[in-house]
Write a structure and sequence with these properties.
Blueprint lengths: L14 H26 L5 H12 L30 E8 L14 H10 L5 E8 L14 H16 L7 E5 L7 E8 L9
Parallel strand pairs: 2-3
Antiparallel strand pairs: 1-4, 2-4
Length: about 200
């Protein structure tokens, strides 16, 4: 085979021009999205509709979201409070290495209480205590033989130790998966506290 056997290359556009056109189209799409979100701010439900449309356009399932991060709390002298946005975890501490099948605190909770006291200085945060088990057959509640009850007992023991530093701002949870014999305290940003009319 010689060089003459290969076909002549067809004249085409330079590669940089195609890349520039792609970049320009992306930029136009971004400005369209900005304009859509800007005009959507006039209507309260429009941003959610826009987000649902984008999810649908990219093939994601559009399912209604249910906020379970914070329960609706009653406002004194008023109806139930509006649903709060999902909590954003920002820090965590915990009580680790519980004895197998026990919810007795393995160490003094003083360090954890000090951490919790510092964490709740900001009124926009809430603490969540999540209890867990290691999944072994022995790491269950001795009376009911339930791992979920032991996990909740561990969370309650830690919550009782730190509740005095953050009254009304500690919630309990249990981990649906097995992991460590622990109770983890998560500091989460939940937004501005509800204001009561004066």
């Amino acid at each position: 085979m010689t060089v003459g056997d290969y076909p002549e290359p067809q004249p085409g556009r330079p590669l940089w021009l195609i890349t520039l056109a792609d970049l320009a189209l992306l930029l136009v799409g971004f400005f369209v999205l900005l304009q859509a979100t800007q005009t959507a701010s006039d209507r309260p439900l429009a941003p959610r509709a826009l987000a649902a449309g984008l999810r649908e356009g990219f093939g994601a399932s559009v399912t209604p979201t249910v906020d379970t991060a914070r329960p609706k709390l009653p406002v004194p002298g008023g109806p139930l409070a509006a649903a709060q946005p999902t909590a954003l975890p920002v820090a965590a501490a915990g009580m680790l290495d519980f004895a197998v099948g026990s919810a007795v605190l393995p160490t003094s909770p003083d360090t954890l209480a000090t951490w919790a006291r510092d964490a709740v200085q900001d009124p926009r945060v809430q603490l969540t205590v999540t209890g867990s088990v290691d999944g072994s057959p022995g790491d269950v509640d001795p009376v009911t033989h339930s791992a979920a009850i032991l996990a909740s007992d561990r969370a309650r023991a830690v919550a009782a130790a730190i509740a005095h530093v953050a009254p009304g701002r500690v919630t309990l949870a249990t981990s649906p998966t097995t992991g460590r014999r622990a109770a983890i305290v998560t500091q989460a940003f939940v937004g501005e506290p509800p204001r009561t009319p004066s």
